[in-house]
Amino acid sequence: MLPLDAIAHSGRWRPRHPAEKAFLGLGLLGCAVVLPPWPGALIIGAVALGLLLGPAGMSVAQIWHAARVPLGFVTIGSLPLLVAVGGTPWIRYEPTGLPLATALAGRSSAALACLLLFAATTPLSDVMPRLGRLGVPPAVIEVVALVYRLLFLLFDSLRAVREAQAGRLGFRTWATTYRSLAGQGGAVFVRAFDRAHRLEQGLALRGYTGSLRVQVRERPVSRSFVAATAVLLVAVVVTTLALRAVLP
Q: Rounded to two decimals, what is the model's pTM?
């Protein structure tokens, strides 16, 4: 199981209805997209991090482990705005791109914190069975569920192949490393194809008719949580617009 999935399954907000957490996380995400990046990104990011560290019960180490790779993409995507091409010299630093890069990084980081607020508190297994009530076709839901399941099987296969190669000194030199990586990719592909074929046969033998029915544990929607979320979103919007009018 991936670390983020383990956190979502064992977190404090696991018993809550996914719609409550979607309203909170995606509502903050909408604010991060619509509101001005200054001071909206700072306020929204602080609120999302405060909820993750407080009510959601995540630690700083867990948040950093989950967000470090996306933050790297945010940083790489913002750096080109600081560079101008053409003229003399041909590549140079562009001071006018600094506000754009800062706004992009701030808005993206705030949006990342909002998505993490939902992903770290809501397992995918709680969301997929309820997507049908929103009009999502059953075939799409089942494809997502099967891909989600096969990912863990592929990770297990990749780990087993890598351990076997390491035990045979397959990563001793650069040449053996490249050869091992090529063999690793081929072995994982063959195993994935074989597992998918066996899964198809198993479904056919069990009378698969186009939909997989699973039992969904009913969880009541907390009206107090929804009301508190609505108040929080309104407060974020009002505070951002008020500070935007006051601050330069």
A: 0.78
